[in-house]
## 1
Amino acid sequence: MSRVQSLKLGAAAQMLPLAAGYGVNLVATPFVVYKLGLDEFGIWSITGAMAQYAALFDLGVSRAANRFVALYHARADHENERSVVGVCVLVLTALGCLLFAIPLLVPDLLERILETGDVSLTQALFLSAATILVSGLLARALAAASFGRGRMVAASIGLSVYGVTTVMGGVIALLVTPELLAYALGCAGGACLGFCAVVTSILLDERRVVFGPPRLSLMREIISFGVKGQALGAADIVIFQSGKVIAGLVAGPAAAGVYELGSRLALGAQAFGSAASVALTTHLTRSFADGGVAEILPEYPRLTQRNAAVGIFLPFLLAATAFSAVPLWLGESNVAIVAVVMALSVALAVNVSSGVCTAAMLAIGRAGILALTSIADASLYLCVAIPLSLAFGFAGVVVATAGWITSATILGVWFLQSRVGIRMIDYIRSVLGPFATALVALFVALPVGIFSAPHDRASALLPFVLGAVTFSGVYLALGWRLHYLPRVKRQAPRTLVDEHVPGDEIA
């Protein structure tokens, strides 16, 4: 039997696809914007958002795969473990067929939304976005099955390759033909190549891709759990993707492009901050399988503190260096992009701090409560964002999104914890220290970018380095001194039977 990799190694492995995908994306984005222009870049970002909305029809199986594989693997029920993967592949294949049919059946409707002036271009853009989406969902479902078996590293490497090839496919296409259609097709081709890389990495690690025929009884259980858990994905898509769509409808494609650029930086920092969430869900699911909720509660406060201390570092670092990071990235300063970056980064840091709460709810099978909370979250966000955007334009979208993410996260944690007997004061005590440390570091480092007022890459490099070093020095020094941040410890590999990681081991 393959050894289960530790929580610390698993959490670290989750950083690989993020570092590769977002790293290459950040490097490539200025080139893509230069070649396409803000209008066409905005059109592509809206197309991607539309495809993300369609992802809601995967019935949550991608999210459910990790939890159910981990549960059945811990119980040595290999038949059901294999069937879980079969259910996921079947549902995602059906979703792919549906998405590929949409641009063929209702091309005029899509054209009225994108307004490219060419129906065939609109069809090709949506088909490309659908290809990227479906190949990514299938790749992540197969990787999630490996994660559920405690095999984090190889699948994460495969996902890293997926992220790189998707971005580089578009870049190579633009080098050959600097047009939106070529870029879309290049990204789609790179995504297909990346999917093959994920399958290959799993084969090399486990010598097989665990797969079995879908069972009807299990399909009902997975879809029931997945649909409830899908509300999490729905809320994320509505809140994180709707901003640029609303901005585009209110102020035009260029505004959507500006919002996309700012949110791309902020969401990248958030993604790194929440990288441990899959490993946390897997670990807490095993704890639940061993001893129920009582096995999770003792380590909950410590896991929450460590997750917050590690997770909020990059969002706050980005906020502290936003005035220099944007011109260093794009080659010119843009006040609107800086505003989006700073507002969303701080809000998303609050969101990241709730990762252990969400992981615990998924681990103990309380997806229904998560669903209700997420549906209310997304619905109320639209009720706030649309009126504010109509009243105040682009600024209203930014304020609505940042403000709602912050307040909804805090209210959601209070509600969810109250359902399992965890006091809100336990969460506040756990995250108060890390946030106070981050705010101190932010206020110390922020003046570097403000007073230097960089306007291009040459003038932004030194302020960015000074700001980043200042923030990191203050935050890391205080975080380690106050024991909020983990220290690296050597530990022997654990097998399935002795996999129990104390709360202070999380990285």
Note: Residues 304 and 356 are 6 Å apart (CA to CA).
## 2
Amino acid sequence: MRCCLRSAVALLLLCLILPVHASDFETLSRLLDKGFRISAEARLLDEDRVLAAIEPQRLLSPASVSKNYLAAAALDRWGPQHRFTTRLVSTREPDSHGVLQGDLILDGGGDPALTSEDLWRLVQRLYQAGVRRVNGRLLVSQWRFGPVECLTYDRCEARERTRHAYSALLSSAGVNYGNWCVNVAPADTPGEPAIVTGCDSQVAILAIDNGVVTRPDNSGTEISAVRITRDGRDVMRLSGQISTNAHPRDIYRASADPADQMALTLLAMLDQAGIAVSGGADTTQQAPSSEATTLAAVDGKPLQELLLRTMNYSNNYMADMLALNLVEAPRADLRSAGAAIEAFVAGIPEHGPVTLFSGSGLTPENRTSARGANALLDSLYHRPSLFPSFVATLQSPANGVMRFIRRGSDTFQRHVMLKTGTLNQPVTVRAVSGYFRTARGRWGAFSVLINGTDSTPYLSWSEVLDPLAVDLERMIDNH
């Protein structure tokens, strides 16, 4: 009896162990020996058959693989051809002399890819509508959302200073991805200060502290840039050197207040277009009056193009802007944006639990499982009207814009489409999720979430992609 009981216990333990070290993830599973936590699964989609798994229901941080959820929810809500509209409105009409007696209001439409070029087109349409002078203020309305509470260290720090572009803050009236841009060019004579101009105007819109010195030909170019906030105004502080024969450099740094950046940028463009604004510029969280009429409007790019940029470049600003737009009520924040995506996920069969504090994945509290991530991919695969737009946002290792994914055999590089996710704080996260096509042309989905602990070593992408490529190649060849 004891012998039978021992055999039964041994068999039960074996069944529990096998899913953790599934044979077809045998190369990748070696990271378990280094203390990393893994949730992984690969499956065929035409017969819902699991090919390999390592604790597939374990909840881990997906980092930027969270953007898969954002892309799916956005396509489900709006469809691939949706465009966000930015408007200039007023409760008054210009008189016969082109004078607008009242405030001109920019109604921020939440376009995550609104650029200076779009603003210039908007200003030209205002000019074409006959406006030549505004006897009032330029008001930038961010009533939909903004300023949005920062939930990550880099974004919180960017309210005062930043050395990065990716830490951009969020507003429904943002422009240029929440970044200032200045151009640094060499002077004609060594020893002279470099020539610094704005990328978007004839005169730099923000203040410049220029410490870049011009050096002789072939001296090398090294430029350090930090955007600080001083006396309530953004300042770009530059230092270093640029050679006389160097090409001009564009420098991007996140602004402290995207709506204020919009106000200053738009005011400068109105001035360049010959439209005077007597009352200066300001921002507001109030929505335009229901009696306001549209004087000029510009539509952004179709959603499928926005998602291509969001996903290919893992653009955190665009992802969180799109997520905030999913919230129906005004004054949206990142947690309510995550909740809107969670509500979409609740309708995906067999997904299981998911927690999303942002659409970008910058928030380390995000949680999902490999099985859940694959359930999402499976649901899009079975929606012919959305699948082409969704799968186009993923990268092929052979042709993707991110060079670090160009690893593994030719089979892996040309039969796989993926999205990666990376975090280094508070713990290491390396995540990858996407589709593969087998040698017989069958579709499969795979998701791998790897989280470190306080005691695990640094994990490079080569240590993840190289073994994953070996394991996936075997599945691709065998099916």
Note: Residues 1-22 have pLDDT under 50 and may be disordered.
